[in-house]
Every structure is written in structure tokens, then in C-alpha cells.
Design a protein that fits this description.
This protein is an alpha+beta fold. The chain has helices at residues 16-37, 43-68; strands at 8-14, 74-81.
Length: 83
């Protein structure tokens, strides 16, 4: 508890418009995948499939905006040790 060498903090910015767009894109992608590939399954498989496809689509959209966009959806501004 006396070791202060591993305490860090940071500032990050979040673009709500890009995050909302990525969320809508991920929802549409997940619904499309479920409509095309999950016919006649139980409801819990639909939920797990939706969450999996949504998570992968959202992560891919955030990575794409961070690498391609001039103003990324999620950006770490500063990272510094806390005294």
C-alpha cells in the first residue's frame, strides 16, 4: 500500500456523435446477422449472438474511427502518474 509507483491517471475525450453512429451501425449489423443466420434457435442463443456481434462490430467501428478519422471517437489526451 505504500508503493506509489503504479498509480496513474489520464484524460480522454469521447465524441458522442461518432459513438452513437458506431452503436447504430453495430445494432444494424447484429440484427442483420441474426436475421440471416439464426433461424429457429432458442431466445438465449439470439441474445448471446446479438451481444457477440454487437461487441465485435462496435469494437471494429471504434478502431476504424481511431485509425481513419481526424477526430476519433475515443482518444486518450494525456496519461500521467499520480503523486
Amino acid at each position: 500500500m505504500g508503493d506509489q509507483g503504479y498509480r496513474y491517471a489520464g484524460w480522454f475525450t469521447l465524441d458522442v456523435r461518432l459513438c452513437a453512429t458506431a452503436c447504430v451501425f453495430s445494432i444494424a449489423l447484429a440484427v442483420l446477422v441474426l436475421a440471416l443466420g439464426f433461424r429457429g434457435r432458442r431466445w438465449d442463443e439470439y441474445v448471446v449472438g446479438f451481444l457477440a456481434v454487437f461487441s465485435l462490430g462496435f469494437a471494429a467501428a471504434l478502431i476504424a474511427t481511431n485509425t481513419l478519422a481526424g477526430f476519433p471517437a475515443l482518444r486518450i489526451e494525456t496519461f500521467f502518474p499520480v503523486p
